Amino acid sequence: MNLGELGDLLYEKPLLALTILAILISVAAGMMAQHRPRLGRTLRNISHLGVVAALLLTVTQIALHNTRSEAALWLDETRQLTVNGSETVVPLRANGHYWARAMLNGEPVDFLIDTGASYTAISKSVASRVGIRKDPADRGVSLVTGNGAIVARLAIADSLTFGSIEAHELPVVVMPDNTTRTETNVIGMNLLSQLASWRVEDGQLILVPRSTPRS
């Protein structure tokens, strides 16, 4: 291996480069310890810091590659949607779903975006917290869930916004709190059908509104 190939290898593997550098500094510190003890101690401390940094980065890298580790889950939760021009880009989470933090009646609520769901659905506790209005014409709607058929109540959300997407006077269904053990709120096709388009591209869900949102 020539110097050029070695340089390319170290450039591609920064952890290896950091470890080698720390070792070289430690060797230099040992060589200078007798003649220049102060400089030797300084170099030794620097080499120790380099080794510790390399170990911490290695542990972090291993944790992030384990999708079930706390570090990977934390990083996954920080992957929020972005706005590119007029398009809202929602990243795919580690659990294989698309999630977005939206403002529902001005309050933050996490939603699963489900293109297979007919309705936008929220839990009864969230509906109460954000002040969802009951639909005067509500006679209930039958839905089939993983726990069987249920009757959900129709209601109206004054606003639901996330990224470049805005919906007003949006019909929603309010799910009974005992439907599931965990609270899951879903954005369904009754909102997505109002968009100009939506598509999945490179593992990202891209939503395009019909017009520029109101300021």
UniProtKB/TrEMBL annotation:
Gene3D superfamilies, A to Z: Acid Proteases
UniProt keyword Cell division, yes or no: no
Domain of life, source organism: Bacteria
Molecular-function GO term, any one: aspartic-type endopeptidase activity
Transmembrane segments: 15-33, 45-64
One example of a Gene Ontology biological process annotation: proteolysis
Residue ranges of domain Peptidase A2 in the record: 109-191
UniProtKB keywords: Hydrolase, Membrane, Protease, Transmembrane, Transmembrane helix
Pfam families given in the database record: gag-asp_proteas
Matching NCBIfam families: clan_AA_DTGA
Protein name: TIGR02281 family clan AA aspartic protease
Source organism: Novosphingobium pentaromativorans
Taxonomy of the source species: Bacteria, Pseudomonadati, Pseudomonadota, Alphaproteobacteria, Sphingomonadales
